[in-house]
Amino acid sequence: MNQMKNIVILGATGSIGTQSLEVIEEQKGFRAFALSAHSNIELLEAQIRAFRPVYAAVTDEEKAKELKIKIADTDTKVLSGVEGACEIASHPEADTVITGIVGIAGLRPTLAAVEAGKRIGLANKETLVTAGDIVMAKAKETGSEIIPVDSEHSAIFQSLAARVNKENYETEISRIILTASGGPFFGKTKEELENITVAEALNHPNWSMGAKITVDSASLMNKGLEILEAKQLFSVPMDKISVLVHRQSIVHSMVEFADNAVIAQLGTPDMKLPIQYAMTYPERLPMEGNKLDLTQKPLTFDLPDPDTFRCLALAIEAGNTGGSMTTVLNGANEAAVSLFLDGKIGYTDIVKNIRREMETHQVIANPALEEILAIEAEVYKRLAK
Ligand code: NAD
Ligand code: MG
Asked: Contact at 8 Å (CB) between 120 and 145?
């Protein structure tokens, strides 16, 4: 790469965001052009002092004011609100936008980046679950490249690069196989899941991530969301996407082709590879970190248990129904997980809330953005009561 690439990191203070900054620090050729955060201005200030971005966007208006005062001695310009995040995401000088915001709050800034034709390193899967049809159609129109950062989807993206005939895409791919770690509750019965605590749900065996995705991984909703994410990213029908539980998180996902060849991407569990690949694609750069040693442990594969992990079954159901049902699934899950993390509902109430919202929803076949946002707001309001 000859020219310095300007990277915008949405959600710079989170797990994906901080690891994206590590990649920028370790590799030449990338500059942290703009950083966003919701309210953690202490960490954002430290990042600003270390990386000297041109812009910082803080969604919480009060916190934006506080940050402005704190960093008055720097050259970084502070923007505020969702508009601020949208502005940096679509800035003419931005090359790649890493979407590390958690949840549906990522939708508008992601869409702003797509509308501006940017390359997206997409971590914020909820955006594709809730408004994938709109985002993918817009990307086609503007030429915005959406490169997955989610490790499974990065693995599929890399495996698909082995294809030779792009014209026969639909007939050549027979199946996408998403791998799932199974989370901390793999093998537990329905009864054993009754009294799960927040601390138990936050204890993931293989990955260290933000709170919401960690709870989603425990319930297997994360895998459900990833099925819907894969459906959008790779335009494959629901019946061509399957899930295998793979406890070691070494095989990050696979593609089975029509001739029964299966191509997979393997590696130690480290999000920095998919983050870096989204920035460097189609090139690969050397990377620090653990090399894979396949002699160390056996690789195992099991079928998931959707009867026990009902969130997975609900996500598949929402994907089969389509339209606004995936918005309801996503919004209800997000609201319920937030209530669970706040100690307001129990672990098994998460799935009960999602099911109730899905059962009472009148599906809109092709919802407009305003309808999606309205449905999410309604679901949130109802669950918060
Ligand atoms: P996190 O909780 O660690 O960080 C979330 C970031 O989003 C923070 O920077 C926060 O400031 C920002 N944010 C939160 N609420 C916001 C709001 N209302 N408006 C604007 N910004 C807001 O989360 P994470 O684990 O980094 O996950 C981020 C996204 O990446 C999620 O969609 C997750 O599913 C996806 N993802 C994460 C991992 C991982 O390893 N962490 C892996 C795959 C996919
Ligand atoms: Mg994943």
From this structure: yes
Closest CA to 310 of 340, 353, 253, 248: 353
Ligand at minimal distance from the CA of 216 is: 1
Determine which residue's CA is closest to atom 22 belonging to ligand 1: 38
**Among the atoms of ligand 1, which is closest to the Cα of residue 271?**
40
* Ligand 1 atom closest to residue 125's alpha carbon, by position in its atom list: 32
| Distance from the alpha carbon of residue 172 to the mean position of ligand 2, in angstroms | 24
Q: Which domain holds residue 118?
A: 5-148
Residue 113 lies in a domain: yes
Identify the band that residue 207 occupies on the pLDDT scale cut at 50, 70 and 90: confident
Q: What is the pLDDT of residues 135-171, one digit of tens each?
A: 999 999 999 999 999 999 999 999 998 776 778 888 9
Q: Give the domain CATH number at 127.
A: 3.40.50.720
The neighbouring-strand residues paired with 121 are 98, 147
Q: Which residues touch 273 (CB under 8 Å, ≥6 apart)?
A: 151, 154, 267, 287, 289
Report whether residue 124 contacts ligand 1, using a CB cutoff of 6 Å: yes
Domain membership of residue 342 (yes or no) is no
